[in-house]
Specification:
By secondary structure, this protein is mainly α. The protein contains twelve helices and three strands; from the N terminus they run ααββααβαααααααα.
Amino acid sequence: MSEEELHKIAGFIETYAVCLLGSGVHTSRVNRNSQRIAESQGVNMSMMTFQRTVVMTVVEAAGTPVATDQSTPTKATITQNATAKAISPTQSTTRTTAEANATASTDTRVINIPTSSVSFALNSDLSALSWRAIDRHLSLDELWEEYNRIIAKPRINNWQVLTLAGLANASFCKLFGGDWISMIIVFIATVSGLFIKQELQKKEVNHLIATLISAFIAASLAAFACYFDTTAEIAMATSILFLIPGVPLINGIIDVVEGYTLIGFSRLVQAFLLIIFIAVGLSAALLLFKHSLL
């Protein structure tokens, strides 16, 4: 395998892995999927994952053994064989491995992980691609074609996301004992808060600040329930549930349990920071509109 071919394979694995990491996949799943892609292309891959970057090395897999001369051995050959027998099996294995690593082509790169929205459909499609790659022995061109087809799939409509998030929070309000007036207020507060967060993210505002502002707006709008004879406390408490970082919390715990301690704790720290900023936004709204609830 030429260095150019190895470079192209590493480029695809890089794009594939960071796309998974950026869209909410835990580390061991990214490693398994990337390993399958590498195996389908005849290379070995190792990956070290951090919160914002990935260090990846792709190495050409061991080739076929070199043919040996089967002619009548000479005196010099017999002497060399006798010397080789004197070497211990461990030394022989070490030398063979070192020689193989020295001659194999290697591609090492450090990649930044892009920030993107969580998409379970995208994660599922990319995972299925890794299985097709190894089962059907897809070529690199076919992998790129399949990958681009998956990426080009239309995402769920933004207003549909807002509507579903609003209905989900309104349902939580009802589940926790809220009445219909509170549910309507929570729906409006959730849609407004999530819309503001999406717009701030488009402007590349820091995600912690965007979360704080979104929590404050959602809770402030939910505070209008205080002006009605309704369950205002439940309305304000459930209006910010759409901001809870469930995916980072789950992925962080999975990573720690499976031995990826560094990135696991990094994800947990980020999740707890988000929870703190949600609490600050909610507390600010309570101070303004409902002192007795704080």
